[in-house]
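Renewal narrative, Specific Aim 1. Our central claim is that a sequence can be written position by position from structural information alone. The example that follows is taken directly from our test logs and has not been curated for this report. It begins with the structure tokens describing the chain, in the order in which they were read.
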């Protein structure tokens, strides 16, 4: 994982009274000496009718709405600049929102995306296409999904590792997880833990040895290395609750089609189950399938009544 020098915060509602993703983005930017961008994607349709709403009037309305959102972001940025060194703002008409975030992060060279997790429990992981899931699947940049409003204070950071690759994770993904967890823990002066869910039937010696190998360059004392047998999502959830973790760092491998239905996806299950924030990283070779060209405003023509 490359050093975190630029952070993109996806602001879901610039007019909201509580902005936990912004607050934590500011904390990370200050801790890591990184630049911060506050970004809002306008993905709502722009409606036109057949009675005088010309293309020029539609563009003017879109421009006015963009300006209004930029002003809201600037007010947030003014407060953020009291704590972070360099803060910029951006608004774009683009849809869907998760694609807009991926495109913006790619265009500005972001090293981390911070987004607020949508409220509500998912009932059919892998079957519904909700924004959080799509952002995790689509972003090549690490994504921090914020689930708690409480600011970080010497946070407990738990890295979910699979050094034996029993659950089909790429070999280099654990290195990305360790680098991400170590960087965030060092910046926030947190406490770093690691958990490894062993597959049933794993020999007693191979699990600890494999975990030691992947953690050889990380500052994780033996007492903070947890080796447990069982399903990865169940093990990580139990460890996170026991340790009162503030952030869980996990890896995700995008799968599609029937393979997803049979294998499932640990990252998506953790998104539902974990009470804390979730930092998802991808393999270094992962390439996002999101098109590079923004869609612009979604114009919908409405027939006049009567």
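The sequence written for that structure reads:
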């Amino acid at each position: 994982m490359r050093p975190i020098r630029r952070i993109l915060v996806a602001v879901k509602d610039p007019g909201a009274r509580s902005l936990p993703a912004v607050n934590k983005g500011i904390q990370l930017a200050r801790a890591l000496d990184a630049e911060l961008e506050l970004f809002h994607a306008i993905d709502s349709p722009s409606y036109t009718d057949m009675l005088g709403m010309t293309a020029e009037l539609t563009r003017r309305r879109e421009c006015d709405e963009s300006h209004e959102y930029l002003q809201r972001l600037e007010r947030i940025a003014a407060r953020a600049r009291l704590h972070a060194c360099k803060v910029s703002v951006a608004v774009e008409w683009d849809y869907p929102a998760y694609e807009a975030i991926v495109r913006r992060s790619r265009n500005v060279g972001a090293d981390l995306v911070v987004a607020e997790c949508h409220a509500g429990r998912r009932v059919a992981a892998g079957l519904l296409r909700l924004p959080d899931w799509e952002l995790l699947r689509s972003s090549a940049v690490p994504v921090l999904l914020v689930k708690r409003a409480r600011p970080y204070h010497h946070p407990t950071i738990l890295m979910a590792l699979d050094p034996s690759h029993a659950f089909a994770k790429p070999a280099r993904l654990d290195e990305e997880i360790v680098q991400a967890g170590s960087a965030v823990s060092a910046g926030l002066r947190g406490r770093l833990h690691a958990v490894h869910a062993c597959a049933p039937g794993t020999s007693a010696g191979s699990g600890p040895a494999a975990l030691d190998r992947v953690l050889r360059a990380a500052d994780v004392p033996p007492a903070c290395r947890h080796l447990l047998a069982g399903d990865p999502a169940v093990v990580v959830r139990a460890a996170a609750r026991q340790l009162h973790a503030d952030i869980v760092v996990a890896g995700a491998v995008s799968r599609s089609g029937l393979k997803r239905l049979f294998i499932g996806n640990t990252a998506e299950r953790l998104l539902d189950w974990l009470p804390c924030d979730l930092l998802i990283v991808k393999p270094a070779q992962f390439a996002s399938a999101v098109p590079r060209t923004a869609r612009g405003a979604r114009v919908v023509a409405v027939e006049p009544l009567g």
